[in-house]
Amino acid sequence: MSVIIAAAIAVIGTLLGAVVAHRYQEKSSARAAARADREREHRHLLEACADFVGVSKTIGGRSTTAGAASTPLPDSGP
């Protein structure tokens, strides 16, 4: 009888260990997926900022050049 009880305790312990391991694995994979999503969003934000800065510099350079060419020089007087 004690052998059957010991075997039942071993089976219950094994099943409990499998359930606990599954829960930890589930939480770990959810954290990894969330971290990957945050990194992907961060990389996208950095790319968007870099594109914006590039366009701003291009437009800023053009407007400065165009503004300098179209602005008349003041008369120095007689």
Summarize it:
With 78 residues, this protein is mostly helical.
3D structure, described in words:
The chain is mainly alpha-helical and 78 residues long. It has one domain (1-55). It has one helix and no strands. The model has no long low-confidence stretch (mean pLDDT 87).
Main attributes?
88% helix; rod-shaped; 0% strand; single chain; 78 residues; mainly alpha
Instruction: Summarize the helix and strand pattern as letters.
Output: H
By helix and strand content, what is the structural category? mainly alpha
Residues in helices, as a percent range: over 70%
Q: Specify the number of helices.
A: 1
Number of domains: 1
Q: Which stretches of 5+ consecutive residues score pLDDT under 50?
A: none
Extended strand count:
0
Q: Separation of termini?
A: 123 Å
From the alpha-carbon coordinates, what is the Rg to the nearest angstrom?
34 Å
Average of pLDDT: 87
Strand content: under 5%
Could you describe the largest sheet, including whether it forms a barrel? none
Shape: rod-shaped
